[in-house]
């Protein structure tokens, strides 16, 4: 998902069929983000405040996360996606999408890999990719494409430093968690996606009926408890 492909801009308007696919992907991404807001007390994070040593054994539960995603960030992503326009570049065979953030027009250029991507939330899915691209208009960049995660507890207030190598992205986990666009995408596609099947109008993992949504069961109850006061 390189941001500045080394090819000429062969951008064309979408065909009617592809415009329908792109709009369906946008609506899916928006529904996912709005559902995250509805379930914010469980699936979103609070502002990190404490960085804990990697050798710390307390608290006992550390949840793997990919991005520091708070309520205002989600609202801003929704605002960007609502305004985004789509163009196609069929010549960039190796890409899903790309953007030019300096253009100011909120254009997302859709490439051949995008059309073959999963249409529901999954690895490298269409809605996840659009969320990734929308985040670039909010200041994220592509620091790494590796799925670097970090560990948090107490609703995200406490963060574990899991590396002693200063050259590793994990040494300062909040850098990639806040600034790396892929981490935003991983947050939804790896952490908050449904693990159960969608059958007879609901997900087997949590009972959610909305097809484009996040899973409350993906977040364990213990993540919501802060041990310093024992309350949720």
From TrEMBL:
<dbReference type="InterPro" id="IPR029463">
    <property type="entry name" value="Lys_MEP"/>
</dbReference>
<dbReference type="GO" id="GO:0004222">
    <property type="term" value="F:metalloendopeptidase activity"/>
</dbReference>
<dbReference type="InterPro" id="IPR024079">
    <property type="entry name" value="MetalloPept_cat_dom_sf"/>
</dbReference>
<dbReference type="Pfam" id="PF14521">
    <property type="entry name" value="Aspzincin_M35"/>
</dbReference>
<feature type="domain" description="Lysine-specific metallo-endopeptidase">
    <location>
        <begin position="49"/>
        <end position="189"/>
    </location>
</feature>
<protein>
    <recommendedName>
        <fullName>Lysine-specific metallo-endopeptidase domain-containing protein</fullName>
    </recommendedName>
</protein>
